[in-house]
Design goal:
Low-confidence stretches: 8-24
Number of strands: 3
CATH class of the domain at 33-100: Alpha Beta
Bound molecules: zinc ion
Distance between the termini: 58 Å
Strand content: 5-15%
Radius of gyration: 19 Å
Number of helices: 3
CATH architecture of the domain at 33-100: 2-Layer Sandwich
Order of helices and strands: HEEHEH
Helix content: 25-40%
Shape: elongated
Mean pLDDT: 82
Strand order of the largest sheet: 2-1-3
Largest sheet: 3 strands, antiparallel
């Protein structure tokens, strides 16, 4: 057996490469950061804020200043969807829909 064990490749993928997948049952939630990473302005869950794919979070002023390009990772900054309900609220709703259909 001159070749090594291919198994080691798969243990790498199953490990730290996929964080957060098993943390929540159901869909993974966005981290709603409460402050702009640049100027510390408040970006509460219901406030207008912009995020990149790595969830770097910026207020609208800073996002505009950076031409909506994340200064950390050079990714696009897009408007973060606002959260109007608590996660608990939503999961209760999902359970109700499963039990009663609609
Ligand atoms: Zn800011
Ligand atoms: Zn970023």
């Amino acid at each position: 057996m001159a070749q090594g064990h291919p198994v080691s490749i798969f243990t790498d993928i199953g490990g730290s490469m996929m964080p957060g997948i098993t943390a929540n049952q159901g869909c993974r939630m966005l981290k709603m950061k409460k402050h702009c990473q640049q100027c510390q302005a408040k970006t509460n869950e219901t406030d207008l804020a912009f995020i990149c794919s790595f969830e770097c979070t910026f207020c609208s002023t800073c996002s505009d200043h950076h031409d909506f390009i994340c200064p950390n990772c050079s990714g696009e900054l897009l408007q973060r969807p606002r959260r109007t309900r608590t996660p608990l609220d939503v999961s209760l709703d999902q359970v109700k829909k499963k039990l009663f259909g609609q």
